[in-house]
Amino acid sequence: MQELTHYLNGAHVKGTSGRFADVMNPATGEVQARVPLANGAEMAQAVAYAQAAQPAWAATNPQRRARVLMKFVALLNRDMDKLAEALSREHGKTLPDAAGDVQRGLEVVEYCIGAPELLKGEFTDSAGPGIDMYSMRQALGVTAGITPFNFPAMIPMWMFAPAIACGNAFILKPSERDPSVPLMLAELMEEAGLPKGILQVVNGDKEAVDAILHDEVIQSVGFVGSTPIAEYIYATGCANGKRVQCFGGAKNHMIIMPDADMDQAADALVGAGFGAAGERCMAISVAVPVGDETADRLIEKLVPRIEKLKVGPYTAGKDVDYGPVVTAAAKANIERLVQTGIDQGAELVVDGRDFKLQGYEDGFFVGPHLFDRATKDMDIYKYEIFGPVLTCVRAQTYEEALGLAMDHEYGNGTAIFTRDGDAARDFANRINIGMVGVNVPIPVPLAYHTFGGWKKSVFGDLNQHGPDAFKFYTRTKTVTARWPSGIKEGGEFSIPVME
Ligand code: NAD
């Protein structure tokens, strides 16, 4: 069986802890590789390499650093098919969706090529007599990121591209479920000219994460994953004096107003609810039609679309809509939540429980499910299911629909479908959720804007990518410089004020 490695100081290095995790092929249910799980000593070794390499990288001028990223973009495009295939094999998503995962990360790298512009400081000429004041953005030093299984290319690039563009060294602890693409990305960065030790991949689980959180050299920690772990990493990292940003789970609502184009809304819901088997933090998992008549029309449009969905392995070609979920445990959790929905009285309008795929009986496939008439107190509404399950909660008024989304503990994304500009504008202004779509079901901002939720979907102040990333990965230093004009007046003993 294939044994994966860590990527330390420019080389693939075998794990020495003696602990491994199985990497599955979710389509077949087979173990296809094992990945080493690092211990504290292995993490300390990575930190030592990073610490040795980082000062020279920070001293490399930002244009040269950006040129490495330019080359990296070319290599990502060269290897797109290879990356997408490796990604689909471990994650299970379809090939076009896997290429999209790489592409959305690539776009963040493209944005970071603007580092020379983005890192320009501020300058005030003659802030006082003979006094200039300027600020500069300096790298933090050694930084680290912990990423989830569901976007094994995009989310690592969200983090390491700006971190490295700013002159930091970056240690990536990817998900142990699909570690191959992160290792390939590190190799490509080195092929693009990145010095050894600036981007390293340390595979592992909680032990490796705790080693990051308690390491004294690591200055910042980025995390994307589930909310309980986000809270833990935020609290522990902050207590240890690190700069931390953590992004957590989601339960994204789509409001459908009576005047919406119902075909457009139904198409959007099916893509946003079932794409990537619902394993997206920006998936729509709750549909909120306003009024019973709207709800009836919506359900009528949704059912045939959902029943037509093609579920299959990524190898089955481009017309597969979604693949398996990532593990047997994820599948069991989805099935458990579906059962609570039935037990608690929601109406299961499309029942995917008996779904079987011939030849792939051991794969982690889950058929599509649609619940109608769910209520706020049900588990299928309260909890993130992270599977192909769309839950419809009927609201009688716009205010009730808005209130539902606002009262939910998560605040990652949301959308409204309407033809009424007034309703859309009111929704965008009042909603307490970080990313809002108007007739757009998955409003993931492009690389030059920032990505981030509100409420329990985020812990920390700054968002991912866009200008926020350049703030997160740098510290500001402000210099007040006085060059005496030659007129010597002697010392000043009271605080200088501008008159
Ligand atoms: P997860 O929280 O299980 O794992 C994320 C990372 O944390 C992995 O690298 C994992 O190894 C590590 N980890 C797991 N348990 C740990 C522990 N006890 N202590 C320390 N580290 C631990 O999440 P996942 O299942 O990989 O990803 C799915 C979750 O991520 C969903 O909740 C989804 O909504 C969320 N997500 C959020 C965003 C966002 O931007 N808000 C984006 C993608 C995914």
Biggest sheet statistics: 7 strands, mixed
In what order do the strands lie side by side in the largest sheet?
15-16-17-14-13-19-20
Strand content: 15-25%
Rg, rounded, reads 25 Å
- CATH topology term of the largest domain: Aldehyde Dehydrogenase, Chain A, domain 1
- The tally of domains stands at 2
Instruction: State the helix count.
Output: 16
Count of beta strands:
23
Q: Give the second-level CATH assignment, the architecture of the largest domain.
A: 3-Layer(aba) Sandwich
CATH class of the largest domain: Alpha Beta
Task: Itemize the secondary structure elements and their pairings.
Blueprint: E1 2-3, E2 6-8, E3 11-13, E4 20-25, E5 30-36, H1 40-59, H2 62-78, H3 80-91, H4 95-112, H5 115-118, E6 122-128, E7 131-139, E8 142-146, H6 154-165, E9 169-173, H7 180-191, E10 199-201, H8 206-214, E11 218-224, H9 227-239, E12 243-247, E13 252-256, H10 262-274, E14 284-289, H11 292-307, H12 328-343, E15 347-350, E16 369-372, H13 379-382, E17 389-392, H14 398-407, E18 410-411, E19 413-417, H15 421-430, E20 435-438, E21 454-455, E22 458-459, H16 467-472, E23 474-482
Parallel strand pairs: 1-5, 8-9, 8-11, 9-10, 11-12, 13-14, 13-19, 14-17, 16-17, 19-20
Antiparallel strand pairs: 2-3, 4-5, 6-7, 7-23, 12-22, 15-16, 18-21
Helix pairs in contact: 1-8, 2-4, 2-7, 3-4, 4-6, 10-11
Nicotinamide-adenine-dinucleotide (NAD) binds at residues 146-151, 173, 175-176, 205-206, 209, 224-226, 229, 247-250, 281, 384, 386, 412, 453, 457.
